[in-house]
Write a structure and sequence with these properties.
By secondary structure, the protein is an alpha/beta fold. It has two domains: about 180 residues, Pyruvate-ferredoxin Oxidoreductase, domain 3 (3-Layer(aba) Sandwich), CATH 3.40.920; about 60 residues, Alpha-Beta Plaits. The protein has nine helices and 13 strands. Strand 5, helix 2 and strand 6 form a beta-alpha-beta unit. Helix 5 runs antiparallel to helix 6. The longest helix has 15 residues. The C terminus is likely disordered. Bound molecules: iron/sulfur cluster (2 copies). The site of one iron/sulfur cluster has 16 residues, from helix 9.
C-alpha cells in the first residue's frame, strides 16, 4: 500500500511482534488476521510462528509475527526473541515468563492491565520505549467479545495499520460477532493510556538463552533425540490457577448446567451430586465465559465477574 511505513525495522529489515497469551485466549487467531491484513492489504511480506498451548490447561502460548517490505529476503524463522512490539495478555505472567527479556531499546509494550504505564514499566524493567496499558479483560467482557480483540485493536494502531482495513477485515472474518469485536477494538483505542520512557532507569535485558532447536547438530546417532537434554518432564506448564476466577453465589444458582457448555476447562466448575457448588481455582483460568452465559434469575446471576487484577 502506497504511503505505509513499518514503525520499526531490525538489521534484517523486519519489524518483530511478539504476542504472549494463554491457550484459548485467541492470540493465534488475532495474529493471523493481523498477518493477513499486513500481507494481503498493505502488500507487506514477512514470517509467522505460533506456539500453541493447551486450552484446557491454560498453557502459555506465544505468536511471533515479522513484517518486512516486499523484496526483503525472508530467511528468519521461528519465534522472535528480540521484539520491537510485545503484547501481553496477562500482566501477571510478565515475571514468571520473563517476557521483558530481549525487548529492543525503544520497544512498544501493549499490556492488558488496570495499572498505569509507570507501574508496568517497573514490572517489565523496560530499558526504554513506550508502554500502552489497556483493560482488555473488562472491555472484552463488556462488549461480549474476546480478550484478543481489544489487544488486536491496539496492536494494529501501534503498527499504524489503517483503521478501515482492520475494521473491514475483522467484520469479514467473523461476521456473526462483527459488532462485538469492532466495539471491543474501538473501546480499547478510546480507553488505553500510553507513556514513553527514556533510557533512565533499567539496563538492557538480553534475550533468554534457550536450549535451541532440535536438529541434526544435536541429534544422537540414528536420529535419536537426547531425552536428558530435551525432556519436558518437570516443566510446569500450568499457569491457569492464578486466582482470577468468577465469584459464585450459590443462592442464585439453578444448576441449569449452561456454564458447563462453555467452560474451556470443565474441571474449573465444581459439581456435586448434580448440583453446581463452586469454582475450582486450580483449574479455572479466568476466561469468564461462564459468567457471560449464566442466566439472570430473580436472585441475580450465580456467577459474576469480580474484575480484580491479581498482584504478581
Ligand atoms: S450457568 Fe449459572 S445458574 Fe446455571 S449451573 Fe452454571 S452457575 Fe448455576
Ligand atoms: S469456570 Fe468459568 S472462568 Fe473458569 S475456566 Fe471455566 S468458563 Fe472460564
Amino acid at each position: 500500500m502506497v504511503g505505509y511505513e513499518l514503525p520499526f525495522r531490525d538489521e534484517l529489515g523486519f519489524c518483530n511482534v511478539l504476542m504472549s497469551a494463554l491457550g484459548g485466549d485467541g492470540a493465534n487467531m488475532a495474529a493471523k488476521l493481523l498477518f493477513k491484513v499486513g500481507c494481503e492489504e498493505l502488500g507487506l511480506d514477512g514470517g509467522y510462528d505460533a506456539k500453541y498451548g493447551s486450552e484446557k490447561k491454560g498453557t502459555p502460548t506465544d505468536v511471533s509475527v515479522r513484517f518486512c517490505e516486499p523484496g526483503t529476503l525472508v530467511r528468519q524463522v521461528g519465534p522472535t526473541t528480540r521484539p520491537h512490539i510485545l503484547v501481553v495478555s496477562h500482566a501477571d505472567l510478565i515475571r514468571p515468563l520473563e517476557l521483558n527479556r530481549g525487548l529492543r531499546a525503544g520497544a512498544t509494550c501493549i499490556v492488558n492491565t488496570v495499572k498505569a504505564p509507570g507501574a508496568i514499566r517497573d514490572e517489565l524493567c523496560l530499558h526504554s520505549g513506550k508502554i500502552v496499558c489497556v483493560d482488555a479483560t473488562r472491555i472484552a467482557f463488556e462488549t461480549k467479545s474476546r480478550l484478543n480483540m481489544p489487544l488486536l485493536g491496539v496492536l494494529a494502531h501501534e503498527l499504524r495499520f489503517p483503521d478501515e482495513a482492520m475494521r473491514a477485515r475483522i467484520a469479514r472474518q467473523w461476521p456473526r460477532v462483527a459488532e462485538a469485536n469492532l466495539a471491543a477494538c474501538s473501546g480499547a483505542l478510546t480507553s488505553m493510556t500510553a507513556m514513553e520512557f527514556g533510557e533512565d532507569s533499567y539496563p538492557f535485558l538480553p534475550p533468554l538463552v534457550t536450549r535451541g532447536p532440535i536438529g541434526w547438530r544435536n541429534m544422537l546417532n540414528g536420529g535419536t533425540i537426547d531425552a536428558l537434554t530435551h525432556t519436558t518432564a518437570g516443566r510446569d506448564n500450568r499457569l491457569a490457577g492464578r486466582g482470577k476466577v468468577p465469584e459464585f453465589h450459590p443462592e442464585s444458582c439453578t444448576s441449569c448446567g449452561i456454564c458447563l457448555t462453555v467452560c474451556s476447562d470443565p474441571g474449573g466448575l465444581l459439581w456435586r451430586e448434580g448440583r453446581m457448588v463452586g469454582i475450582d481455582d486450580r483449574f479455572c483460568k479466568g476466561c469468564m465465559r461462564c459468567v457471560e452465559v449464566c442466566p439472570e434469575t430473580k436472585k441475580g446471576k450465580a456467577l459474576t465477574w469480580v474484575g480484580v487484577e491479581v498482584e504478581s
